[in-house]
């Protein structure tokens, strides 16, 4: 099986540590990972802001970039959901506009290959204990698109519970949105900030040392709010916890 | 109301209202938890929900047929059917019908459709006073306020505020509240009961909406919790019901599905307390005259849109409002229409169009968290419709307005965003340029400001920016795994 990493544009530019962690983790599990340099962005921001037509070339690029691989792993619930839920929709809309079935065909080809990290570990590799060590208390924020679009369920927490030294604590109001929402965060900054403040209060109340999620966009918002406020847990992507070992703790 | 300020501006004020935030948080979280429990009791909820969506879709697909069937049945049962293409026409019809009775007062059953068309204001302009008889609508009317929730219109008020409104305002509308009225629910309810009883016994004309209209028999259905609606539906001599055309269900068997879906989703009850049904008129029992005003007001245009039409499945349960994190913080008034919350954000821009700044801002009043879709009892994919309407705002395109296909121009104020999206797309189509940009950002990371000017200030006002790393992932990969991807 040829496995590729889809790093996502946000992780590539701002959170390369998450990408390094995915590579480290998968290599530790014996998976050889490829990184096609032609990959860029799934088009989620464009699509969710209303620029569907701008997304179409990015759909073509995405499918093309990963054409030679059997599986595409990505450390972002919302980017995986973008491909799985919205690529077929973009295809249908193009067809309904009389532009043929090309995008539908491309979507049909890529959708079964794309896996969010926790799905890949549990559903494809069938590994729950990835051999990680992380001696901290951790609260897990499920993120809306992992929870409600991908429906990853308890996969991430099963992985976390298997980590040596890690204590998983309850996050009050866990399934409530953090208020990021892509361009929502700047189009409705007051509501976004109010939601962020409530999420941060719950993160602090959880008593955790680390707030973990499987999507760095949400963590950018939560972490940015925490950093402005001062104190509270630090934020860390699931991949970085799973990549940690006794010799090398994130 | 459509001249109101855009959503983000209205929300900027309401998020800072601590009392409002606390009232809304308490109320929505309470109903949310109760609903979840009530729904979890049914093992076949998923199938019931799918059935509700399928019945609505089938009815909407053949709406012309069912509306004609409904009209025939209502007429055969002694009612009169009127067709209103828009709010003005509906208001004119109702005003004319009330005037024909010689009355200058009407009692009202809680109704979303009459709020949508601004009926009370139209009647007032014609010298007719409309009395709201739903407890929460009464609070709103006495407080010279606007509803902020579909099911609990006074959700933004707490008991103390309600006591003050009753004490100060009830006397101007009829029987006053006792001087020493406390804020205990029992005393508040008793004051409202005595005040309203006087209205019920005097009224000769009632105006209602309806939750459902059964086409096969011409039966209208009102679902309510207080019994005040039933007083209006049975005591007056004339009953006028204003109902959106999408409220049609073909048969009583179809109705059965919705009478299970609606109470659990809205009030978290297993069975609705007061379900009133009536078919035309009955000699010696209830109103002697019955008029049904079928309201379009943008619904046929909405039906023409392949993605947006699912909004017409809505049964006004409010479950989406009660789980919405944006509604919880912004409050219902920020949505600037009778329909607040996620459903309002997809319904209003379709019924009214996206021409005003407020209506164009509504599709963006969501973080797309998907909680609304998850609880919707008729499976309206609200996030999907929101994104679809965002496209209409920023890209324009084809839509149906007033029954005709029109090309909508992109809304004003999105030029910079459109340019940024195009630039981003260009970079994403040129990975080398993207990589050069990332490198440049990394090399200059020491120079990045922590607070941004212009549109970026919307981020940095409440959040720190992430620090740009010394090396983008691409470069690390090249350095450590270089060449491996070259297949």
From TrEMBL, chain A:
Residues 3-83, 138-222 form the Cysteine-rich domain. It holds the Pfam family CCG. This is (Fe-S)-binding protein. It comes from Streptantibioticus ferralitis.
TrEMBL record, chain B:
Residues 472-487 have a biased composition (Basic and acidic residues). Residues 389-479 form the Lactate utilization protein B C-terminal domain. Keywords: 4Fe-4S, Electron transport, Iron, Iron-sulfur, Metal-binding, Repeat, Transport. Pfam families: Fer4_8, LUD_dom, LutB_C. It comes from the Bacteria. The keyword Transferase does not apply. Residues 311-380 form the 4Fe-4S ferredoxin-type domain. Residues 439-487 are annotated as: Disordered. Residues 67-294 form the LUD domain. InterPro entries: 4Fe4S_Fe-S-bd, 4Fe4S_Fe_S_CS, FTHF_cligase-like_sf, Helical_ferredxn, LUD_dom, LutB/LldF, LutB_C, NagB/RpiA_transferase-like. PANTHER family: LACTATE UTILIZATION PROTEIN B. This is Lactate utilization protein B. It comes from Streptantibioticus ferralitis.
């Amino acid at each position: 099986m040829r496995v590729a990493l889809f790093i996502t544009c946000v992780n590539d530019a701002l959170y390369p540590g998450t990408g390094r962690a995915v590579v480290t983790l998968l290599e530790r599990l014996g998976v050889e990972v490829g990184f096609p340099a032609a990959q860029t962005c799934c088009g989620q921001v464009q699509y969710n802001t209303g620029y569907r037509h701008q997304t179409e070339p990015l759909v073509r690029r995405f499918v093309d970039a990963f054409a030679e691989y059997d599986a595409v792993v990505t450390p972002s619930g919302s980017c995986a959901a973008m491909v799985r839920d919205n690529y077929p929709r973009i295809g249908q809309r193009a067809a309904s506009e009389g532009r043929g079935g090309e995008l539908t065909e491309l979507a049909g080809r890529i959708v079964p290959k794309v896996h969010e990290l926790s799905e890949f570990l549990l559903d494809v590799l069938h590994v729950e204990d990835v051999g990680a060590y992380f001696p901290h208390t951790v609260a897990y924020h499920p993120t809306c698109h992992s929870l409600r679009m991908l429906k990853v369920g308890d996969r991430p927490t099963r992985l976390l519970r298997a980590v040596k030294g890690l204590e998983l604590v309850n996050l009050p109001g866990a399934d409530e949105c953090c208020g990021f929402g892509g361009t929502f965060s700047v189009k409705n900054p007051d509501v976004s900030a109010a939601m962020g403040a409530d999420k941060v209060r719950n993160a602090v109340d959880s008593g955790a040392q680390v707030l973990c999620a499987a999507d760095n966009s949400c963590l950018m918002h939560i972490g940015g709010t925490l950093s402005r406020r001062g104190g509270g847990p630090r934020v860390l992507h699931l991949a970085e916890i799973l990549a940690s070992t006794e010799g090398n703790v994130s | 109301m459509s001249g109101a300020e855009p959503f983000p501006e209205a929300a900027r004020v309401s998020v800072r209202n601590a009392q409002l935030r606390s009232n809304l948080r308490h109320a929505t979280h309470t109903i949310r938890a109760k609903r979840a429990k009530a729904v979890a009791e049914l093992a076949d909820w998923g199938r019931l929900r799918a059935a509700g969506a399928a019945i609505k879709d089938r009815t909407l697909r053949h709406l012309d047929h069912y509306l004609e069937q409904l009209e025939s049945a209502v007429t055969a049962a002694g009612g009169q059917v009127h067709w209103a293409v828009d709010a003005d026409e509906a208001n004119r019809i109702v005003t004319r019908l009330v005037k024909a009775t010689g009355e200058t007062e009407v009692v009202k059953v809680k109704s979303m459709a009459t709020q949508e068309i601004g009926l009370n204001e139209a009647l007032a302009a014609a010298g007719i006073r409309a009395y709201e008889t739903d407890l929460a609508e009464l609070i709103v009317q006495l407080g010279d306020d606007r509803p902020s929730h579909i099911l609990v219109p006074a959700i933004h008020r707490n008991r103390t505020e309600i006591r003050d409104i009753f004490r100060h305002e009830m006397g101007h509308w009829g029987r006053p509240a006792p001087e020493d009225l406390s804020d205990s629910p029992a005393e508040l309810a008793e004051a409202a009961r005595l005040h309203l009883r006087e209205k019920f016994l005097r009224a000769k004309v009632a105006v209602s909406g309806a939750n459902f209209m059964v086409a096969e028999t011409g039966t209208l259905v009102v679902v309510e919790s207080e019994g005040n609606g039933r007083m209006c539906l049975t005591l007056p001599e004339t009953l006028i019901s204003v109902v959106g055309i999408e409220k049609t269900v073909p048969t009583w068997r179809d109705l059965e599905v919705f009478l299970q879906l609606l109470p659990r989703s809205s009030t978290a009850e297993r069975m609705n307390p007061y379900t009133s049904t009536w078919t035309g008129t009955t000699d010696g029992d209830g109103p002697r005259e019955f008029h049904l005003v079928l309201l379009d007001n943008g619904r046929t245009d909405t039906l023409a849109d392949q993605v947006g039409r699912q909004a017409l499945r809505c049964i006004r349960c409010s479950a989406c409002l009660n789980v919405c994190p944006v509604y919880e913080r912004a409050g219902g008034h920020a949505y600037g229409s009778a329909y607040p919350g996620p459903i309002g954000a997809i319904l209003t821009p379709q019924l009214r169009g996206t021409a005003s700044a407020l209506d164009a801002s509504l599709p963006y009043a969501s973080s797309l968290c998907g909680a609304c879709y998850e609880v919707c009892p008729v499976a309206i994919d609200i996030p999907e419709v929101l994104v679809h309407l965002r496209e209409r705002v920023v890209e324009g395109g084809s839509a149906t307005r007033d029954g005709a296909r029109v090309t909508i121009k992109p809304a004003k104020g999105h030029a910079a965003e459109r340019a940024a999206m195009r630039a981003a797309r260009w970079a994403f189509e040129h990975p080398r340029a993207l990589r050069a940009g990332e490198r440049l950002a990394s090399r200059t990371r020491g120079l990045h400001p922590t607070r941004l000017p212009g549109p970026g200030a919307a981020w940095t006002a409440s959040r720190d920016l992430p620090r740009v790393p010394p090396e983008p992932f691409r470069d690390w990969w090249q350095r450590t795994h270089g060449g491996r991807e070259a297949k």
